[in-house]
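Re: Re: token formats

Sure, here are both.
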Amino acid sequence: IDASVTVDMNGNTLGVTGATDIDGILTVAASTLTLDGGSDIDGTITVSTGTVDANGTFDATNGTIDINDAGDLQLAGVVTSLGDVSIDFGTVTYDGAGDQAIVADDYFSLTAGGGAGIKTLSGAVNIAGDLAIDAGVTIAMGINNLTVTGATTIPGAVTITTATLDANGTFDATGGTITFTEAGNLNLAGTVTDLGTLTSVGFGTVTYDGAGDQAIVADDYFSLTAGGGAGTKTLGGAVTVGNDLIIDTDVTIGMDTYDLTVTGAANIVGTLTVAANTLTLDGASDVDGTITVST
């Protein structure tokens, strides 16, 4: 499509077997555009509720991907650039059947799909909407931070090295796996349903950093921090901390009826309430805050 030319799909599907070169404007709207060859987008693709299914290489350097409703950009090949991609609407899905690099960018919603493979962050990724990692798929963060404003759903897997996965919405890793390979961080500000299989032997800190009350999922943690500057973080079951426990200023951990065992150091600047349960501190304890024991 030449510069200064607009093609409107007008409700029809369009499939391209060979290469696609868009210097003008292609209006997909609610239709489906399938691009099986390489795509070079220096112009604009506009999508409302439709789908752009790019199965070959994709390069939108100097171009614009304008998703103005719940549309979907599906990327199965090597992606060089997303150009100026919408961050107010739409989902970008990396759905190659094997390994892919996820372009460092700001997304609205992001899905790691395709049923298999490792999707590796090539830089920091910020998601204004939701993150989904499908079953059988892994996001490898490396040293690159991943920030999610909306819901995070992980039936697949995520590996964290020295980076931070900052999940600010609801978090559910039921059936999934979270693996720390170095001293990375998982920050959880919303309601946490499940941490899946949490593999953090020797590495990693999980921080509940919501500004209000939260439930701490029953699990075995390496290091655990109750943060956020306020609120009561209530144990949802027995919790074991293999390394260090930190309770920040103005934050309370309520043990409810569950046991809490800390192998490493305990640094309590906030409050820890012990009721009909057992608190075991095997390492050094630095209590500048308060431990309250009722029964």
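Second one below.
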Amino acid sequence: NNTSKANWQDTAKMWYAGQYVFRGVFDGNGHVVSGLYYYNDNNNDNAWAGLFQAIGHSSTIKRLGVTESSITNTGANTHTYAAAICAYLEHWRDRGYKDATAPVISECFGSDSVYLEASAPAGILAATQTAVTIENCYFTGELTGSVYAAGMVADNWAASGYGPTIKNCYAATLDGDPLGDGYGTGSFNDDTVTDERAFLSNCYVAGSSLTTSITPISVMYMKGHDAKKYMPNLDYNKVWKTVEGGTPVLRCFANAEKYASQRNPKEVTISFGNLGDAVVEPLRGYPGYTPISK
């Protein structure tokens, strides 16, 4: 794209906001994109916003990261999507493509300096209604969703047996947002998994989860060597590596440690009334992590 033109800032919006579908293989080769900024609060024409607006059948996006970026895609449209990697998955099964296969998003991430806002924002893929595989990905940024919000996939309305497959992933967002489809809650519920609208395995989330297919743990247990204990099914020999004081990162990125989240959850304080002349000190700590003793 030619940035020497006077109107390059206006045309640049079409690079990552609109309804263009990418069909192909994109190997980021361990590169990390920063400085991605988009703000739309009234234009309903650009309902999809992300590094990739949409991907189609047989596509692969791999070894790609996003950091220090902000995407706001709101407005009157209640189906606006925003994602660090891809905003929308084309409903390729209905298009009759010959020899089409499900797209794959692998070894991708959005760091904790990424902010996403839409009706349904997600760290990796905001919306899908058909099969896609997301594997070995993580998101630790901030999400603001008016309808759904999730670390991996926010809005999923796939038919039974044709939903997304999410495996070997984790999410540790500012608000403890789980992986998966909202349905008003921000996480896959058990019905979503048991009727095969989604297939999850080896997924971890900082916070709570409404399904046994996702393991909820404190973000404090995701850090350093604790990750191997509390997130044991990630491949730490070939794909992932632990970071002292931070969450796991992907080995395919140079200087990967800088993209680990070292953020702590919000500390909680429990106060008590005094017992006569005795002063009862408040309890302070992190939910799901700090032990409480008598």
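Helices lie at 8-16, 190-194, 226-230. Residues 8-16 form the longest helix (9 residues).
- S.
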